[in-house]
Amino acid sequence: MISRREFLQAxxxxxxxxxxxxxxxxxxLAARQALMSQxxxxxxxxxxxxxLVHLTDIHAQLMPIYFREPSINVGVGxxxxxxxxxxxxxxxxxxxxxxxxxxxxxxxxxxxxxLASEYGRMGGIDRIATVLNSIRAEREANTLFLDGGDTxxxxxxxxxxxxxxxxxxxxxxxxxAMTSHWEFTYGIDxxxxxxxxxxxAFLGGNIFDAEWEEPAFEATKMFERGGVKVAVxxxxxxxxxxxxxxxxxxxxxxxxxEEQVQKNxxxxxxxxxxxxxxxxxxxxxxxxxxxxxxKGIDVILTGHTHDALPEPVxxxxxxxxxxxxxxxxxSRIDLDVRDGEVKGYQYKxxxxxxxxxAPDKATTELVTKVRAPFEKELNTVLGKTxxxxxxxGNFNGTFDDLICDALIEEREADIAMSPGFRWGTTVLPxxxxxxxxxxxxxxxxxxxxxxxxxxxxxxxxxxxxxADNLFNPDPYYQQGGDMVRVGGMGxxxxxxxxxxxxxxxxxxxxSGEKIDPAKNYVVAGWASVNEGTEGPPIWDVVAxxxxxxxxxxxxxxxxxxxxxx
Amino acid sequence: xxxxxxxxxxxxxxxxxxxVAGTAVVxxxxxxxxxxxxxxxxxxxxxxxxxxxxxxxxxEIAENGNTVPVTFDVESPMTSxxxxxxxxxxxxxxxxxxxxxxxxxxxxxxxxxxxRIRLAKTQNVIAVAKMSNGDFYMDKKLxxxxxGGCGG
Lengths: 565, 152
Fold this sequence. Notes:
Radius of gyration of chain B: 15 Å
Number of helices of chain A: 19
Largest sheet of chain B: 5 strands, mixed
Order of helices and strands of chain B: HHHEEEEEEEE
Strand content of chain B: 25-35%
Shape of chain B: globular
CATH superfamily of the largest domain in chain A: Metallo-dependent phosphatases
Number of domains of chain B: 1
Strand content of chain A: 15-25%
Structural class of chain A: alpha/beta
Shape of chain A: globular
Number of domains of chain A: 2
Distance between the termini of chain A: 50 Å
Helix content of chain B: 10-25%
Structural class of chain B: alpha+beta
Number of strands of chain A: 26
CATH class of chain B: Mainly Beta
CATH topology of the largest domain in chain A: Purple Acid Phosphatase, chain A, domain 2
Oligomer: heterodimer
Largest interface: A-B, 42 and 21 residues
Strand order of the largest sheet of chain B: 1-8-7-4-5
Low-confidence stretches of chain A: 1-24
CATH superfamily of chain B: SoxY domain
């Protein structure tokens, strides 16, 4: 049997097929796929003396996955209408990407289901290894491989092994440094245990001891590549103690700490750095502002907000790189550094088409080994979906609609809340929902599905609070993430209003009545940051629901009315 | 005097900490219901507090509203002719906006201090410096106190 990859390569070889008359669907497919080959994907106009390779927010996805980019990603303030706040057709037009092409599939939400079945899954750490090996084969002495964090969390196997699977596999890829966010949700003891044995730098210049206000982790690592001194400064997610459970790492303080970033940059320059790279988990808008205020950073490798941009955004003299998430992309930046200055660059956001890029054999074997003990559970089918299940988008995603439906039915609640995480893979219509796919959207260390009574006022306060984390016009007050997903209740949001007045018209969907600030409602949710939250893990709640329904379907969610966009 | 690190921090750390210690945190406001504006007016005697010279460092979003680290640093040669005399720190949204008044002299070396304050809700933290020549400067930073819990 011909494998999909062999088929694609055959299609490339038989290039004559392209453009023949009367193209049926098979030929159209072949024509599109013929646009790609591994050599094309890896082709790069090598330049200068330093190569940076950036992988970020892989969220423990060792295997190829589907991941639909958002169709709504509103920018506010100065970010309005600017990348990465362009989606769908606007995105394609901005970057002159033809619809239905591989790039359109990889980078936008347009025709997602149809293109996904044509172009297949993306990512896979063994394909990433192939790309990395190929770059290193050409530029061994020039290359730095940098991991932007959110590497250890997001899959069934990473949760079961407390990230041991990711650590083992990533170590074989030999990163030069990483920074962090969800890593800390394994608890400070586990992080320390892993970091002590990590054969590369774990950087976080903004991680401080909460009591003494002293640096708690290494900030900067100096490398020499291609005869150039390169300083890499790590910046962990600034709002870990706010957005994630502080009790899991009680003695640490984070924050943007702009002054500290400037100090670290200055120290690196004083130390002879000719290139300064910020390996950041700030989120794109935060980094854009930071780049306008901190002097002396050549490249910011952004992360956290999961944006994938085919070109750098340039602020002053700083290049901002956005390398996507879940292993869909690997970024390569070549820098021409002379006389202590970056004189030029080349950039490519390399899409990891899993059916086009050959897996690296040794890495495939290792992935098979780490997954082996869990293979049966991973492949257990819970049910099927008729609808596309995805998470990304500012206000709702169908996977969260499913989670909210499950919470309301299984926990007998009036209203359900599901956090606006940006991690979680996509399930195509007619695909089986396996334990693995459910865990890709829920796997975490504080999964308790709580059930509690909240007043209408408290629900409003929560929505206002989260909306301000997302739509505060000053990026330094944004935490990343998306709006909390709400089931059983509709509302209107004006993103341009200040905190306290964005959310109006809160309506209980089952009765159509307005939410009364003084009345109590039964709310079910999950992933509370409060210590001691009780309830079954969210994956059990959703698994029971899917098993009972056998086939799930999610109708388009029209209960959130968005204004001011 | 054997000042431990913890005590020094509690008094308001930084290079000036020990020098400041003797006169450090003065309970600021006897009067009830004094607003931050009232307190600034009382401190400056109605004179305008210009922007500049004072830099106030706070987290943008508090990790824990009960203990928010605040640092100020006032640009000054700190000579007998030209130094920072006092710095008033306020939290304009607290039931009692007064936090502390720090006293400095030319012997302080530099006019900076750190402390931790409790913030009841999202509000501005304000530092007003009185210079030895009677000029006033101020800086203001918004610190958000969130319910938290849904990011990522």
